[in-house]
Design the sequence.
């Protein structure tokens, strides 16, 4: 048997995959074999390391060397230099943005220092397509413990005591949900995993399924045992092909081992899992809409109650949990409720995975204990704002959430604090904005998304959001009035109170929170007709400064609509009625003569 | 691989696989383990560093000592190859020269197990950038 001295871990998540990590993996394997090292070096594709900003990632064990932005062509150098000669390839090491030092060991990177990985415990460590590696990391041990030593009620009690709350955004206590489904009397019950991750900018569920699919499978089986159900369904969007593929492989391997199927581990409990594909509609993340979509109907929500726990898939009791919620379950069973509830804040236990995106240095996936502050997440883990610009706001909770500003930076992040600050946890997307972002446009962007994604069943959402969008559009066009802001507020409140499902009830949040936190900006837009960040093109006017203009004609020659007039060596002037505000003149002017007002 | 019929079956797979993955587990916190770095430049390899490294890996395994064995580049003591640097948890690294299987056995038995120094230590007579 081969006795490996070194393991080379290559990120096989979607992000790194898109930057040719599959090719890199092939190259590494081929060259290792060519050099006759295949008995000494094991090359493994893992799930996401989280540091997507600098992908593809390659990690060499046991010396824990962390290489970033590795191209397929770098494979030879890594093998010849590092693997054979023991010299680290300096140019591929992560460079600390603060002191420009090369950091070889990932443990010393600011990005990883503050993280605590529970849901992502195996991502970037195991080969997701090898069930044995999952088992080696205590995999299926929790399920075995439940089936052989515990009654369903005991497991439910552990879950309740742990304080785990739904990670999909709602934050409903998981143990309680299981108990309610357990109490519902029926011949058939279903366990559904909600993998319809729809928030723009959130990708933790996908990464868990890609990097550690067995943790979700194991947890679904445990849930089935608790509620008394034999059928598991994963509702996953078809636009996650890699996650689907890994999940399929994992289910197949679990079946081969008898860890899914009839009489698991010699008990009288049977459980199996099937996949259901979604077309990627945002509303199908709402559990009733999700269930209708699985049944083959249009993905439209229905009024709750009855809750799915009582009447769900084909009117049978159905327990719907999110991917990240499930990923926490096996660890809680193995390590105990006390261990889990010792992490986090008073009312929000454990950790939360956040997807950092936007104008932040370290775009990627992180997991921190609940109660960590936004400042720690954005500046210490996220590495601060890109290009040294000024932080303006962070959008949490996706289109249902709100914007948090500088004054919220020291708020410990948990379910309740975020709601108190006018936003919400959501699934954990965090989009960071800097001084160049216009908050009215941001609100408009999210409304554009909700208008597109509204299923159209109830009028507050279908018509109301459209009107919200139109008013916001009017303001960004410079045609808004002071009354429009009041109208936005009123309409938002009505939509929140009257919409049918979570989508409509939360869709005005981006509008309300930007009005609350950036009142001045809205006022500037409607009264001064100005956009301070220069995003609203209609509110800008380009001028040529007569003092700086030397009459080189560069601007006039590059203007696509011939809006600039002026003689050679004479002062040029922009015709405001023809100008389309493309900014080409400003870009071409070498004398800083073009300015925006 | 057959079906997993009981917890014992599951544990068997787990133990078997854990051996294959211990390398990865250990490298998560090497500071708390015995770290052995074998100089594997051309001169080291020519004098048998590869065999010495294999010996360390196998013997630590057999004698049930938690250790991380890595290879490194030339340490500069080409006259004393193969050279090996051993770092016990919380201690300064010590470099041994002329390490063959017998010497390696000595190092494990005396230095790693009991902290007794064995012959052939090369005094470290340089400073690294990190120390400055």
Sequence:
């Amino acid at each position: 048997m081969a006795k490996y001295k070194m393991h080379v871990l290559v990120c096989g998540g979607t992000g790194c995959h898109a930057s040719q990590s599959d090719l890199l993996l092939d190259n590494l394997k081929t060259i290792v074999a060519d050099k006759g090292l295949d008995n000494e070096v094991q090359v493994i594709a893992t799930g996401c390391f989280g540091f997507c900003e600098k992908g593809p990632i390659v990690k060499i064990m046991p010396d824990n060397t962390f290489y970033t932005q590795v191209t397929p062509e770098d494979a030879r150098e890594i093998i010849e230099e590092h693997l054979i000669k023991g010299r680290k390839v300096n140019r591929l090491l992560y460079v600390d943005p603060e002191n420009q030092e090369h950091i070889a060991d990932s443990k010393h990177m600011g990005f990883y220092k503050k993280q605590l990985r529970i849901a992502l415990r195996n991502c970037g460590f195991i080969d997701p397509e090898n069930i044995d590696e999952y088992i080696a990391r205590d995999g299926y041990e929790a399920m075995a413990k439940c089936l052989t030593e515990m009654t369903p009620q005991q497991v439910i009690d552990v879950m309740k005591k742990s304080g785990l709350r739904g990670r999909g955004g709602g934050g409903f206590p998981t143990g309680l949900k299981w108990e309610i489904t357990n109490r519902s009397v029926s011949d058939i019950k279903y366990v559904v995993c909600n993998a319809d991750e729809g928030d723009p900018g959130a990708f933790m569920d996908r990464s868990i399924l890609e990097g550690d699919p067995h943790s979700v499978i194991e947890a679904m089986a445990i849930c089935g045992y608790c509620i008394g159900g034999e059928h598991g369904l994963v509702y996953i969007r078809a636009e996650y092909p890699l996650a689907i593929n890994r999940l399929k492989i994992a289910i197949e391997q679990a079946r081969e081992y008898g860890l899914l199927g009839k009489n698991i581990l010699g008990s009288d409990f049977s459980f199996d899992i099937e996949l259901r594909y979604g077309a990627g509609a945002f509303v199908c993340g709402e559990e009733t809409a999700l269930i209708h979509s699985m049944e083959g109907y249009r993905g439209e929500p229905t009024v709750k109650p009855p809750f799915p726990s009582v009447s769900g898939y084909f009117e049978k009791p159905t327990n719907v949990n999110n991917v990240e919620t499930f990923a926490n379950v096996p660890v809680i069973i193995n390590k105990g409720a006390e261990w889990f509830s010792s992490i986090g804040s008073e009312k929000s236990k454990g950790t939360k995975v956040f997807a950092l995106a936007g104008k932040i240095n370290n775009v990627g996936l992180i997991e921190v204990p609940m109660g960590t502050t936004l400042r720690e997440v954005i500046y210490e883990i996220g590495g601060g704002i890109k290009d040294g610009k000024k932080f303006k706001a962070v959008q949490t909770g996706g289109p249902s959430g709100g914007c948090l500003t500088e004054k919220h930076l020291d708020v410990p992040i948990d379910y309740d604090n975020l709601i108190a600050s006018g936003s919400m946890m959501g699934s954990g997307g965090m989009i960071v904005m800097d001084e160049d972002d216009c908050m009215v446009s941001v609100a408009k962007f999210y409304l554009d998304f909700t208008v597109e994604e509204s299923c159209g069943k109830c009028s507050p959402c279908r018509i109301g959001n459209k009107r919200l969008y139109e008013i916001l559009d009017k303001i960004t066009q410079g045609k808004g009035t002071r009354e429009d802001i009041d109208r936005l507020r009123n309409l938002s409140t009505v939509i929140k109170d009257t919409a049918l499902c979570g989508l409509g009830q939360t869709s005005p949040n981006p509008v309300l929170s930007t009005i609350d936190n950036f009142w001045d900006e809205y006022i500037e837009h409607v009264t001064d007709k100005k956009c301070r960040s220069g995003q609203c093109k209609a509110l800008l006017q380009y001028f040529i400064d007569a003092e700086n203009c030397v009459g080189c004609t560069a601007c006039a020659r590059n203007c696509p609509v011939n809006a600039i007039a002026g003689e050679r060596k004479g002062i040029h002037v922009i015709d405001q009625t023809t100008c389309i505000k493309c900014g080409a003149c400003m870009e071409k002017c070498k004398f800083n003569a073009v300015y925006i007002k | 691989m057959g079906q997993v019929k009981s917890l014992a079956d599951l544990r068997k797979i787990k133990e078997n696989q854990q051996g294959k993955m211990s390398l990865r587990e250990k490298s998560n916190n090497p500071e708390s383990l015995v770290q052995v770095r074998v100089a594997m430049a051309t001169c080291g390899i020519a004098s048998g560093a590869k065999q010495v490294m294999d010996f360390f890996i196998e013997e630590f395994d057999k004698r049930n000592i938690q250790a991380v064995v890595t290879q490194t580049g030339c340490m500069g003591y080409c006259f004393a190859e193969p050279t090996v640097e051993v770092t016990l948890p919380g201690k300064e690294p010590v470099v041994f020269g002329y390490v063959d299987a017998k010497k390696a056995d000595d190092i494990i038995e005396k230095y790693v197990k009991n902290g007794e120094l064995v012959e052939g230590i090369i005094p470290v007579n340089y400073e690294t950038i990190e120390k400055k």
Notes: Chain A has a mean pLDDT of 92. Residues 436 and 532 of chain A are 8 Å apart (CA to CA). The interface with chain B takes residues 3-7, 9, 61-64, 84-87, 125-126, 132-133, 135-141, 144, 148, 256-259, 265-266 of chain A (CB under 8 Å). The domain at 351-434 of chain A is CATH 3.10.20.600 (Ubiquitin-like (UB roll)).
